[in-house]
Design goal:
This protein is mainly α. The chain is 78% helix and 0% strand. It has helices at residues 20-25, 43-80, 83-173. The longest helix is centred in the last third of the chain and has 91 residues, at 83-173. The chain is elongated, with a radius of gyration of 52 Å.
Length: 174
Amino acid sequence: MATSSSNPSARKPATTRKTPTAARTRKPAGTASTTTSTQPRTPVEQVQQIAERVVLVPVGASLLARENLGSTVRGLATKYSTRKGVERELKRFERRGVTARSRLERQVRRTRTKFERELRQRRTRVERTVKQNRRRLEREVRQVRKDLEKQSKSLTSNVEKFVTDAQERLNSVA
Protein backbone atom coordinates (compact mmCIF):
# COMPACT_ATOMS: atom_id res chain seq x y z
CA MET A 1 0.00 0.00 0.00
CA ALA A 2 1.55 3.29 -1.06
CA THR A 3 1.12 6.40 1.03
CA SER A 4 1.44 9.83 -0.40
CA SER A 5 3.85 12.18 1.32
CA SER A 6 1.58 15.14 0.57
CA ASN A 7 -1.19 13.76 2.80
CA PRO A 8 0.05 13.71 6.42
CA SER A 9 -3.20 12.12 7.69
CA ALA A 10 -2.74 9.08 5.48
CA ARG A 11 -2.71 5.89 7.53
CA LYS A 12 0.17 3.52 7.77
CA PRO A 13 -0.52 -0.20 7.63
CA ALA A 14 -1.56 -1.69 11.00
CA THR A 15 1.36 -4.10 11.08
CA THR A 16 3.99 -1.35 11.29
CA ARG A 17 2.09 0.94 13.66
CA LYS A 18 3.12 1.02 17.33
CA THR A 19 1.20 2.70 20.11
CA PRO A 20 3.08 4.71 22.69
CA THR A 21 1.89 2.32 25.45
CA ALA A 22 3.10 -0.74 23.59
CA ALA A 23 6.45 0.91 22.91
CA ARG A 24 6.94 1.59 26.63
CA THR A 25 5.97 -1.85 27.85
CA ARG A 26 7.94 -3.91 25.32
CA LYS A 27 11.63 -4.33 26.01
CA PRO A 28 14.09 -6.15 23.86
CA ALA A 29 15.51 -9.28 25.48
CA GLY A 30 18.71 -8.76 27.43
CA THR A 31 18.37 -5.00 28.00
CA ALA A 32 18.25 -3.54 31.50
CA SER A 33 15.38 -1.41 32.66
CA THR A 34 16.09 2.29 32.76
CA THR A 35 13.30 3.01 35.28
CA THR A 36 14.10 2.76 38.98
CA SER A 37 12.24 0.09 40.92
CA THR A 38 10.91 0.59 44.43
CA GLN A 39 12.02 -2.92 45.37
CA PRO A 40 15.60 -3.11 46.67
CA ARG A 41 17.92 -5.30 44.61
CA THR A 42 20.61 -6.18 47.12
CA PRO A 43 20.34 -7.60 50.64
CA VAL A 44 21.90 -4.43 52.03
CA GLU A 45 19.20 -2.32 50.39
CA GLN A 46 16.53 -4.66 51.75
CA VAL A 47 17.86 -4.31 55.31
CA GLN A 48 18.07 -0.54 54.86
CA GLN A 49 14.44 -0.42 53.70
CA ILE A 50 13.27 -2.51 56.68
CA ALA A 51 15.20 -0.27 59.10
CA GLU A 52 13.61 2.82 57.56
CA ARG A 53 10.16 1.30 57.95
CA VAL A 54 10.82 0.43 61.59
CA VAL A 55 11.56 4.10 62.27
CA LEU A 56 9.01 5.73 59.97
CA VAL A 57 5.90 3.73 60.93
CA PRO A 58 5.79 4.82 64.61
CA VAL A 59 6.71 8.40 63.65
CA GLY A 60 3.86 8.55 61.15
CA ALA A 61 1.42 6.95 63.61
CA SER A 62 2.32 9.40 66.36
CA LEU A 63 1.95 12.38 63.99
CA LEU A 64 -1.48 11.13 62.91
CA ALA A 65 -2.53 10.61 66.53
CA ARG A 66 -1.34 14.11 67.42
CA GLU A 67 -3.34 15.63 64.55
CA ASN A 68 -6.45 13.66 65.56
CA LEU A 69 -6.07 14.68 69.19
CA GLY A 70 -5.61 18.31 68.19
CA SER A 71 -8.71 18.31 66.02
CA THR A 72 -10.67 16.60 68.81
CA VAL A 73 -9.59 19.18 71.37
CA ARG A 74 -10.38 22.03 68.98
CA GLY A 75 -13.79 20.49 68.31
CA LEU A 76 -14.55 20.17 72.01
CA ALA A 77 -13.34 23.70 72.68
CA THR A 78 -15.61 24.98 69.91
CA LYS A 79 -18.62 23.04 71.22
CA TYR A 80 -18.22 23.91 74.90
CA SER A 81 -16.74 27.39 74.75
CA THR A 82 -20.08 29.18 75.22
CA ARG A 83 -23.10 28.58 77.42
CA LYS A 84 -25.25 28.18 74.31
CA GLY A 85 -22.91 25.50 72.97
CA VAL A 86 -22.96 23.61 76.27
CA GLU A 87 -26.77 23.76 76.41
CA ARG A 88 -26.99 22.57 72.82
CA GLU A 89 -24.74 19.59 73.58
CA LEU A 90 -26.70 18.78 76.74
CA LYS A 91 -29.94 18.79 74.75
CA ARG A 92 -28.28 16.53 72.19
CA PHE A 93 -27.20 14.12 74.92
CA GLU A 94 -30.70 14.20 76.40
CA ARG A 95 -32.25 13.37 73.00
CA ARG A 96 -29.87 10.46 72.60
CA GLY A 97 -30.74 9.28 76.11
CA VAL A 98 -34.46 9.50 75.36
CA THR A 99 -33.94 7.59 72.13
CA ALA A 100 -31.96 4.88 73.91
CA ARG A 101 -34.58 4.62 76.68
CA SER A 102 -37.42 4.37 74.15
CA ARG A 103 -35.54 1.68 72.23
CA LEU A 104 -34.95 -0.27 75.45
CA GLU A 105 -38.62 0.06 76.49
CA ARG A 106 -39.76 -1.21 73.09
CA GLN A 107 -37.37 -4.13 73.34
CA VAL A 108 -38.60 -4.96 76.86
CA ARG A 109 -42.25 -4.80 75.73
CA ARG A 110 -41.47 -7.01 72.75
CA THR A 111 -39.66 -9.52 74.94
CA ARG A 112 -42.44 -9.53 77.56
CA THR A 113 -45.12 -9.98 74.90
CA LYS A 114 -43.18 -12.83 73.32
CA PHE A 115 -42.65 -14.48 76.72
CA GLU A 116 -46.34 -14.14 77.65
CA ARG A 117 -47.42 -15.55 74.27
CA GLU A 118 -45.12 -18.56 74.63
CA LEU A 119 -46.33 -19.07 78.21
CA ARG A 120 -49.99 -19.02 77.08
CA GLN A 121 -49.22 -21.48 74.31
CA ARG A 122 -47.44 -23.83 76.71
CA ARG A 123 -50.24 -23.56 79.28
CA THR A 124 -52.87 -24.28 76.62
CA ARG A 125 -50.83 -27.25 75.39
CA VAL A 126 -50.49 -28.65 78.93
CA GLU A 127 -54.19 -28.11 79.69
CA ARG A 128 -55.15 -29.83 76.44
CA THR A 129 -52.85 -32.78 77.18
CA VAL A 130 -54.18 -33.12 80.74
CA LYS A 131 -57.76 -33.04 79.45
CA GLN A 132 -57.02 -35.68 76.81
CA ASN A 133 -55.29 -37.90 79.36
CA ARG A 134 -58.19 -37.50 81.84
CA ARG A 135 -60.75 -38.45 79.16
CA ARG A 136 -58.65 -41.43 78.11
CA LEU A 137 -58.28 -42.57 81.73
CA GLU A 138 -62.02 -42.17 82.43
CA ARG A 139 -62.82 -44.13 79.27
CA GLU A 140 -60.44 -46.93 80.27
CA VAL A 141 -61.82 -46.99 83.84
CA ARG A 142 -65.40 -47.31 82.48
CA GLN A 143 -64.27 -50.13 80.19
CA VAL A 144 -62.49 -51.95 83.04
CA ARG A 145 -65.58 -51.48 85.27
CA LYS A 146 -67.84 -52.96 82.57
CA ASP A 147 -65.45 -55.88 82.06
CA LEU A 148 -65.28 -56.42 85.83
CA GLU A 149 -69.08 -56.33 86.12
CA LYS A 150 -69.39 -58.90 83.31
CA GLN A 151 -66.79 -61.14 84.93
CA SER A 152 -68.46 -60.66 88.33
CA LYS A 153 -71.89 -61.65 86.92
CA SER A 154 -70.34 -64.61 85.13
CA LEU A 155 -68.48 -65.65 88.27
CA THR A 156 -71.63 -65.21 90.38
CA SER A 157 -73.69 -67.32 88.00
CA ASN A 158 -70.94 -69.98 87.86
CA VAL A 159 -70.71 -70.07 91.67
CA GLU A 160 -74.53 -70.29 91.99
CA LYS A 161 -74.57 -73.09 89.41
CA PHE A 162 -71.74 -74.88 91.26
CA VAL A 163 -73.52 -74.50 94.58
CA THR A 164 -76.81 -75.74 93.07
CA ASP A 165 -75.05 -78.73 91.46
CA ALA A 166 -73.29 -79.54 94.74
CA GLN A 167 -76.58 -79.36 96.69
CA GLU A 168 -78.32 -81.57 94.16
CA ARG A 169 -75.57 -84.16 94.41
CA LEU A 170 -75.65 -84.03 98.18
CA ASN A 171 -79.43 -84.42 98.15
CA SER A 172 -79.26 -87.35 95.73
CA VAL A 173 -76.68 -89.16 97.83
CA ALA A 174 -78.64 -88.66 101.03
